[in-house]
Amino acid sequence: MVNPTPLHPRQTKRPAAHADVSTIPRVLSVSRPGRCAAAAGAGIFDQVDETDPFLSIDIFRRHGACIPAHPHAGCVVATYLFPEATTALRCRHAHGGDDVLHPGDLLWLDTNCGTVHEEVPDDARATVRGVRMIVNRAGRHAHGAPAQSVVRTEAMRRWREGDVDLTLICGQWDEREVARTEGERTTLLQLDWHDDALRTLTIPCDGRRWLALIAQGEAALAGHALRAEGGGAEAVWLPPGEWQLAGRTGARLVVAGGDPLGEPVVYRGNFAARDESDLVALTRRYQQGAMGTLPPVEDPH
Domain Pirin C-terminal, which positions (predicted)? Predict the structure, then answer.
């Protein structure tokens, strides 16, 4: 382009009603925990004071990776596959859940009192990329049975604003809604740039907390340069208001919002607990087999 969109636009804000005008977006540190070589990624971890109700959000990348059976409790595990993924994932949990997650789909696993689950790719040679959100539910459903559901790609809301495609994966954005369960406002929004473009992003003043994470390419949000491959910030905490947003061709940004619980939480070993004694109780339940076991997948051949 002769006059490409600048990636450092002037910061502007129109505060939403009742918003704290002194509050400005803040960069969140992004780490690469290296959980296993086959499931590399980058995300926001261990910053619950800033990210409540999200315990973590990360952009994962797997090549031929089977995530073996492991437990979760006291949280929601939400897994979204980017549409360009070249394989599906079979997602099972020990209390009867068994769904195939295709490219563009979202899996929503309410672990409640605890379950063991696994994710197995259809093609062990393929690469899978997507978003993983762990949402705090510590103490909310201590006796509830685990349950999972899938939001299929055809059920998501899509629209275009200039040179930017938007996909509402789940939750609420403006007047649009992709409802998973009644009253569930946890939102995941994806923005994809077809060309260099400048627009505004209006964060609603409705009590939810919002985070933005660059998934690929380059963008700038509220004066912060975001680059997926290093050399800049990768995640931003967003207060209510209207913020200037620019992106390069091919950039992808994901925006997540949720209702903060404002309660103490201990998140360790995939268990979200109210306190250390609650964590010990969840760990004991798992060790005693109360979270179930997964039988091996039968070989169709």
Answer: 198-291
